[in-house]
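agent: user wants the full assembly modeled, not chains individually. Plan: 1) parse entity lines 2) check alphabet per entity 3) run joint structure prediction 4) return tokens. Steps 1-2 passed, two entities, 536 residues total. Proceeding.
--- entities ---
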Amino acid sequence: MHLKVNNLHISYGKIEMLKGITLEVSQGTITALVGANGAGKSTTLMAISGILPFKEGSMDIDGRQITRIKTDEIVAWGIVQVPEGRRVFRRLTVLENLQMGAFLRRHDRTVKDDIERVFSLLPILSKREKQEAGTLSGGEQQMLAIGRALLAKPKILLLDEPSLGLAPLVAEKIFDVLLKIQAEGVGILLVEQNARWALEAAAWAYVIETGKIVLEGEGRKLLMNTQVRKAYLGE
Amino acid sequence: MSPFETFIQQLINGLSIGMIYALIALGYTMVYGIIQLINFAHGEIFILGAFFALFVFSFLGSFVPLNNIVTIIIMFAAAMAGCGLLGVIIERVAYRPLRKAPRLACLITAIGVSFILQNLMMIVWGPIDKSFPVFFKHVVFTVGALRITFMQGFIIITSLLLMISLHFFVRRTMLGKALRATSEDMVAARLMGINVDKVISICFLIGSALAGAGGVMYGMYYTTITFHDGYLVGIKAFTAAVIGGIGNVPGAMLGGVALGMLEGLAAGYISSAWKNVFAFLILVLLLLCWPSGILRKFRNE
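--- prediction returned ---
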């Protein structure tokens, strides 16, 4: 699957949050989106997921143009988001959270096998299966958020700040999981404050500033860029 | 009767009406839990359940003689289906267009819907009391000095069955889980592909159907109904929902039972003329001192 976002414009009242975002994501690759707080990274993901309506622009999925996006249709297409702050359903158990990820496939008998597969990828979840998600640690909740999204059978995963607020060791585990998911052929659009890791892993990366893409290129090449190093790697 | 037995007897008397409050309170609390709206039209939906049942009763009666049990089942089915459908339509027509409007706009609309329904009922069924058919002979069971009528037992058991079904739906089915997920985090639910508009419709459908069932039992218990009955009982059920913590499903059941029993005690020890005073005194005190209810809803930090 290939997702292309063309010239996305989004406004909150009079404030223009996105001023024409164009980007592409392909299955099996990691694409990074880096930028400062408030640059419009989350807004971009929420627009792709159809939570925020855009007044201008369009999306292409495998060459099919979509102009009015409904979130459940986007999920059914295979574009699934792991939102910022994890947003697991705290009062639902771990298993129930996973089942919600498979909500559109609720009559599908293979969901049980998929849950087992998620448990083997993220073994901590199987230990916590019957626990309420609110009792999990931050890292475990992030794993759950990722596992929940995987149950929607994504072709492209939109990840918003998966390492935010996690200890470096835990963050590393999350990154390992992401690489495994990519290796299975899922495309990842990654928004990540750990720009170094994101750029290293990304085949292609975009730098966003105040609602505009100001720079794009291969991840490792951007890592060498002096502008990028100054702004996002603290050098 | 010993003082203790008197006390228990008042609790039993309060329990049956408390169960009806609980059924109605569930609708308030489910709707509030999912779209943070106090649906003031819910009381009217409740009493409409009684009117719908009365309508099918007279309709059926003019055709074929049926035995009581079949008649009662048809009355419940009609009331629950009619109220459920009405709840869905009200949400679709009156509340959904205001989904993004300030919350106050929705609240005022709900009050408006309540007035519209009340006046429609007055036009259709008239301003005077309508008498409800009596199905059960006045049978009284006694345990020691305690008395419970067949009607009271019927209300308690029917309500319990409905609540257990709701509990099963919310806990075990995918739609029920989606309902809980949506009431916790609507955006996250949408990101899972859950169509929240449908979930909200289902919430209104179930809440209103339960209120409709409550309406039929109210009619059977008090044997007369009027177009404005829903208003007072509705506010009491709302009180019950607040007692349990609005948005909290088990809390609503508990709150309804607690309020009914309290009314029973007030009626038994002071005077039945004072029972409404007590119900609303509790509402005022709770809103002042303990607005999140006895079972506080677990909140995200």
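agent: reporting back. Chain A touches chain B at residues 49, 51, 71-72, 75-76, 80-81, 83, 87-92, 96, 99-101, 103-104, 106, 134, 148, 152 (CB under 8 Å). Chain A has one domain: 2-232.
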